[in-house]
């Protein structure tokens, strides 16, 4: 990830205040002035312990409401730095500020990163977090538990904050968090940034950092006592709220979180007391530093982000969860690309132009338990041995949410037998369609069905139901081609030879 820039700065952005032991705290804010004010009014109560940098993505409310308010915080020395991006680049603002060390740094060994739409009632919240970090070397980061009292009453909201796991004899609970006042060891967090942003070319997403901590055999944990109140959740109670409209206008979750948008920004910093004494005009008590005109940034395409490793699947899962999108897997997609689905194949023939995730489907799917809404595959299962197919079905059951549905489409053994018994079998349309007019006997025709195209095992409805039941599915039904009671599963089949279609619900 490369940045080339023109700078016009009066202080070194990476300078560490050697006399300051407060914890650097980076707060990201956007759009809703009332929410921002409540959150910053809260966090600035702890300015004696936190050296606060406020990062804002520009919005229609910046000039008239948000910026004047934050400038007042600067003048009152309640925050140390204000970084205003010219556009809304979402979490990429975190990316730039933390990775380039634009935040106000101190001698503290810790760093805090948080969204700017939270408050905490427990006055001992910071003491609790510091104690967790200091007493538990196995902990990579500790975030606040969320108070669910105002959890939006919308479909899927119950999955937004999975329950934490209590750890006996420890002062924390085990569980991933968003950037909810996340406290970590500064050196370790900055190292994680380098690996995630530069080596893996991923983005500044909470789920990516949580995964990284586990890869390092560390723990991402939550507070046991203190809870954060999520102010933005209150917005969901008002359908016409302008911020909610912005969120809902983005149909593609990738557009919200994984993108290559960057922009110029301005750094505002208060004059130190010694410097303020020589300034007559109080309006000059803020140094304006026009920092970095970004002229190039390494392009990271979606294909780059979807590299051949488990992180990609987890990124896609988190994006779907964050936006409330259904997670739909198209297994063994081949050259058929279904938009709105995660299309997965190992591309063994090197003929697939559009592919979301490169994966050998004989192995365990790179998705956690109970995370997927729908799974579909067409002319896939018959290419596996019976044991491979059974393992695949069991793993599909594992990743499906309760109520999730698998739809299977394949050639029907009964149809193959019917073709064999057909006295005019040589006139079958599919023989000409697939260039098989060279077949001379019915026996050769039957063996083509069983052995050609990499087929390993053919099914009829009885056998398919049996194998689905062996995998653990209980609710199974045979379905017509292109028809389903689930809107997401309608009109998915692309082959007329998919004469056996079934749906199995977890």
From TrEMBL:
Keywords: Methyltransferase, Transferase. InterPro entries: Methyltransf_11, Nucleotide-diphossugar_trans, SAM-dependent_MTases_sf. Gene3D superfamilies: Spore Coat Polysaccharide Biosynthesis Protein SpsA, Chain A (3.90.550.10), Vaccinia Virus protein VP39 (3.40.50.150). One of its GO terms (biological process) is methylation. It holds the Pfam family Methyltransf_11. GO terms for molecular function: S-adenosylmethionine-dependent methyltransferase activity. Residues 364-406 form the Methyltransferase type domain. This is Predicted SAM-depedendent methyltransferase. It comes from Desulfovibrio litoralis DSM 11393. The lineage of its organism: Bacteria, Pseudomonadati, Thermodesulfobacteriota, Desulfovibrionia, Desulfovibrionales.
């Amino acid at each position: 990830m490369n940045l080339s820039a023109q700078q016009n700065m009066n202080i070194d952005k990476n300078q560490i205040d050697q006399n300051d032991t407060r914890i650097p705290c980076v707060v990201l804010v956007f759009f809703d002035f009332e929410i921002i004010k409540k959150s910053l009014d809260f966090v600035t109560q702890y300015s004696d312990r936190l050296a606060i940098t406020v990062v804002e993505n520009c919005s229609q409310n910046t000039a008239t409401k948000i910026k004047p308010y934050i400038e007042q915080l600067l003048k009152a020395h309640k925050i140390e730095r204000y970084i205003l991006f010219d556009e809304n680049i979402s979490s990429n603002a975190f990316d730039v500020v933390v990775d380039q060390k634009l935040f106000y740094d101190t001698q503290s060994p810790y760093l805090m990163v948080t969204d700017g739409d939270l408050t905490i009632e427990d006055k001992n919240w910071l003491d609790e977090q510091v104690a967790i970090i200091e007493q538990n070397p196995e902990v990579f980061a500790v975030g606040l538990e969320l108070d669910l009292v105002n959890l939006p009453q919308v479909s899927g909201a119950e999955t937004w904050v999975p329950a934490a796991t209590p750890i006996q004899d420890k002062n924390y609970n085990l569980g991933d968090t968003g950037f909810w006042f996340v406290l970590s060891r500064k050196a370790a967090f900055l190292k994680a940034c380098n690996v995630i942003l530069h080596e893996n070319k991923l983005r500044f997403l909470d789920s990516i950092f949580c995964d990284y901590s586990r890869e390092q055999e560390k723990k991402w944990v939550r507070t046991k006592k203190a809870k954060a109140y999520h102010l933005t959740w209150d917005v969901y109670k008002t359908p016409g709220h302008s911020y909610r409209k912005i969120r809902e206008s983005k149909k593609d979750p990738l557009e919200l979180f994984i993108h290559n948008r960057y922009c110029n920004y301005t750094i505002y910093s208060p004059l130190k007391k010694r410097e303020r004494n020589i300034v007559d005009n109080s309006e000059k008590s803020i140094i304006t530093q026009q920092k970095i005109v970004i002229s190039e940034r390494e392009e990271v395409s979606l294909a780059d982000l979807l590299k051949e490793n488990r992180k990609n699947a987890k990124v896609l899962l988190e994006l779907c969860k964050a936006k409330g999108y259904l997670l739909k897997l198209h297994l063994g997609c081949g050259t058929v690309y279904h938009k709105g689905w995660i299309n997965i194949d190992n591309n063994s023939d090197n003929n697939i132009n559009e592919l979301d995730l490169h994966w050998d489907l004989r192995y365990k799917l790179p998705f956690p338990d109970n995370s997927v809404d729908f799974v579909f595959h067409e002319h896939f299962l018959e290419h596996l041995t019976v044991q491979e197919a059974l393992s695949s079905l069991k793993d599909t059951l594992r990743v499906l949410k309760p109520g999730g549905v698998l739809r299977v489409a394949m050639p029907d053994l009964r149809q193959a037998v019917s073709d064999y018994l057909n006295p005019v079998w040589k006139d079958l349309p599919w023989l000409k369609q697939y260039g098989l007019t060279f077949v001379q006997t019915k026996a050769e025709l039957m063996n083509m069905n069983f052995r050609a195209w990499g087929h390993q095992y053919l099914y009829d409805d009885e056998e398919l139901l049996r194998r689905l039941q062996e995998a653990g599915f209980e609710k199974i039904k045979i379905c017509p081609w292109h028809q389903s009671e689930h809107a997401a599963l309608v009109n998915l089949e692309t082959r007329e030879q998919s004469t056996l279609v079934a749906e199995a619900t977890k």
